[in-house]
Amino acid sequence: MEGFARLGSNMLRLLRLMALATCASGFATVPLCDPDWYDKAHFDCQMYEQAGWCKSDGTLGEGWCKTSYYLDGLTSLETCHHIKGDTWGWYGSLDGFTTKKGGSAADACAGCGSECPPTTYKRTPNALPADCVDAIAPSGGVWRDSYGYTCASYQYGNFCVQTASGGWEQGGLWKENGYGELSDYAW
C-alpha cells in the first residue's frame, strides 16, 4: 500500500511541475475539443473545416482570405482581393482569431489539425443545384465578396437561407452575429 501512496505522491509532484512549466513558458492550457468553440468573430469549427479556412495539418486553407499584409510571396491566385485592398485581410495564421475562451481552430477543430474527435456539425449547409459552380474572380482565383468571404463561406455558414416561399434571406451565422446587411458586402 505504501508503494501506491508514494507513486500517487510522485505523480502529483510531476503534475504540479508540468503546470508550473506551462505557466512559466507563457502557454496557457487551452480547453481543447470543445464542441461549442468559436473564434473571436464567432465562427465555429464547422465553418473553418467546411469552408476550407484551414487544412488538416493546421495551416491556412484555400478559403482563408490571405493578403500580402500578413503573408509574403503570395501569387495573384492566392491573394484575397477585397474592398479594403490587398494590404488588409484576415490574419496570417489561425492564431490571429484566438479567443478568450481559448485556442484557435488549430487547437479546437479536428479538421484544422487538432487531435480532437471529428466535429459534429450543427448546421445543415444550403443545398446547391448539381450544375452550380463558383464564379471565377478576375484574378483567376475563387470568387469572394468585398470582405473576403467565398461561396463556401456563404454555403456552410448559412449566410443566406431559403424561406418557405422559396426566396432567400440572411440567416445562419450571419444573422446570429449581426454583420449587417448582406448587400453591404457586395462589390
Q: Strand portion, in percent? A: under 5%
Structural class determined from secondary elements = mainly alpha
Q: What is the β-strand count? A: 2
Helix content: 10-25%
Global mean pLDDT: 76
> Low-confidence stretches at least 5 residues in length (pLDDT < 50)?
3-31
Q: Which sheet architecture does the biggest sheet show? A: 2 strands, antiparallel
User: Numbering strands along the chain, what is their spatial order in the largest sheet?
Assistant: 1-2
What can you tell me about this protein's structure?
By secondary structure, the protein is mainly alpha-helical. Helices cover 25% and strands 3% of the residues. It is built from five helices and two strands, in the order H-H-H-H-E-E-H. The chain has helices spanning 2-25, 45-50, 105-108, 151-156, 172-177, and strands spanning 160-162, 168-170. Strands 1-2 form a two-stranded antiparallel sheet. The protein is globular and about 40 Å long. The model is unreliable at 3-31 (pLDDT under 50).
Map the helices and strands.
Layout: H1 2-25, H2 45-50, H3 105-108, H4 151-156, E1 160-162, E2 168-170, H5 172-177
Antiparallel strand pairs: 1-2
Key attributes of the depicted protein:
disordered N terminus; 2 strands; 5 helices; mainly alpha; 187 residues; 25% helix
